[in-house]
Amino acid sequence: MIEFTFWDILRNLLFATRWTLLLSMVAFAGGAAVGLLILFARIAKRPWLRRFGAGYIALFQGTPLLMQLFLMFFGLPMLGFRIEPWTAAALGLTFYASAYLAEIWRGGVEALPRGQWDAGASLGLHYLQELRLVILPQAFAITRPPVVGFLVQLIKSTALTSIIGFEELLRTANAINNATFEPFTVYGLVAAIFFVLCYPLTQYARLLERRAPAH
């Protein structure tokens, strides 16, 4: 057993938290970009695009995130792609986030009254201009609470990437616990760090819900 002081444990966990935050930000940004494309497919006028969008969302929402990470990390090398834990974690969480964000935003688009589309058309806007100038800004505004709520879920989901070898907060905690045999201290601090990261976002989501106008 290696001797670690409380501050040694905390310092190492805080150092690892940087990677948890970086992975969360990359996955959220990437998920937003891909999710926007899936949203366009989901609300497209062409049936085959709508079916593709619906199938994509069903696939990633209907399968465990851990399985998706395994397929990225263990499956892609069998197809000839060399992939590191960081890349597999970022890709897995990006696709996972994109499905949920696309569905959240689709709900926002469908919550808008048909008159919003008609108003855009009356101004001579074509379909993409209607989306960019009229529909999407309103849809994004009314879906901010669930989007922030999903970000909380995404931050907590980064812990699963420890299983494929990504050195984030939980994997570092496992290594420290194996060296110190102090699970209560180590995992108690991990829980506290996740709480500090997630609780303000949870409260912010609730604040947005209270401020959201009724439709």
From TrEMBL:
Q: Where in the cell is it found?
A: Cell inner membrane; Cell membrane
Sorted alphabetically, the Gene Ontology BP terms of this entry are:
amino acid transport
Which residue intervals define the domain ABC transmembrane type-1 in the entry? Answer: 17-202
Assigned protein family: Belongs to the binding-protein-dependent transport system permease family. HisMQ subfamily.
Keyword Cell membrane appears in the UniProt entry: yes
- Which residues does UniProt assign to the signal peptide? none
* UniProt xrefs under PANTHER family: BLR6398 PROTEIN, MEMBRANE COMPONENT OF AMINO ACID ABC TRANSPORTER
This protein is called: Amino acid ABC transporter permease
Q: Where are the transmembrane segments?
A: 20-41, 53-74, 184-202
| UniProt xrefs under InterPro entries | AA_ABC_transptr_permease_3TM (IPR010065), ArtM/GltK/GlnP/TcyL/YhdX-like (IPR043429), MetI-like (IPR000515), MetI-like_sf (IPR035906)
Q: What is its main location?
A: membrane
- One Gene Ontology CC term in the entry: ATP-binding cassette (ABC) transporter complex
| Molecular function terms from GO | transmembrane transporter activity
Record membrane topology: Multi-pass membrane protein
**Keywords, A to Z?**
Cell membrane, Membrane, Transmembrane, Transmembrane helix, Transport
The protein's matches in Pfam families, at most eight in alphabetical order, are given as: BPD_transp_1 (PF00528)
- Origin, by domain of life? Bacteria
